[in-house]
Amino acid sequence: MTSSTNVTKAMVNQFMERLAKQDAEGLGELFADEIDWNVPGSEELPWTGRRSRREHVPVYFRTMWKAFVAGQSTAIPGAVVVDGDDAVILGTFSHTVVSTGKRFETPVALHLTISDGKIVRMHLYEDTHAVNQAFQA
After folding, report:
1. How far is the first Cα of the chain from the last one, in angstroms, to the nearest whole number?
2. In angstroms, rounded to a whole number, what is the distance separating the alpha carbons of residues 73 and 103?
3. What mean pLDDT value characterizes the chain?
4. Residue 112: which pLDDT band, with cuts at 50, 70 and 90?
5. Whole-number Å distance between alpha carbons of 103 and 89
6. How far is CA 103 from CA 39, 45, 74, 110, 137, in A?
7. CA separation for the pair 5, 94 (Å, rounded)
8. CA-CA distance, 37 to 118, in Å (whole number)?
9. Is the pTM here over 0.85, yes or no?
């Protein structure tokens, strides 16, 4: 196993631990100053879209978490595939939307890239249609 693979695995573990704790500031600390971030979705959902700076990371998580009923979200991790600086985390997210009360579930794939011990890329792939539908009254 290469040292880059070990660093990537360690970063994935830290990312998952901080995500589970809903530690927005701690998640931000894992990212490089300049990032390639993409969470596709509806323009009506303020956390979706592209980000390019570390300081955007905590704002993303705090904004998104406020949209979901506290205590009613789950993130079930599946396989984690690591190849050098890249990791793909597969899993399932379930949430209940505050504004509509609708619950949805979506399979997810999260692609992280690590460089110099920091996350430089985070792309999230999920069922954006299901997410958007859950926010429709």
Report:
1. 50
2. 9
3. 95
4. very high
5. 22
6. 20, 16, 11, 21, 12
7. 30
8. 13
9. yes
- DSSP lists the bridge partners of residue 94 as 74, 105
**Which residues lie below 8 Å from residue 1, measured CB to CB, with a gap of 6+?**
none
What are the E-state strand segments in 1-137?
Answer: 31-39, 49-53, 74-83, 86-96, 103-115, 118-126
Give the residue-averaged pLDDT of 58-74. 96
Which tens digits make up the pLDDT trace of 1-39? 678 999 999 999 999 999 989 999 999 999 999 999 999
Predicted pLDDT at 1? 64
Residue 48 sits at φ, ψ, to 5 deg, of -80, 165
- The one-letter code for the residue type at 46 is P
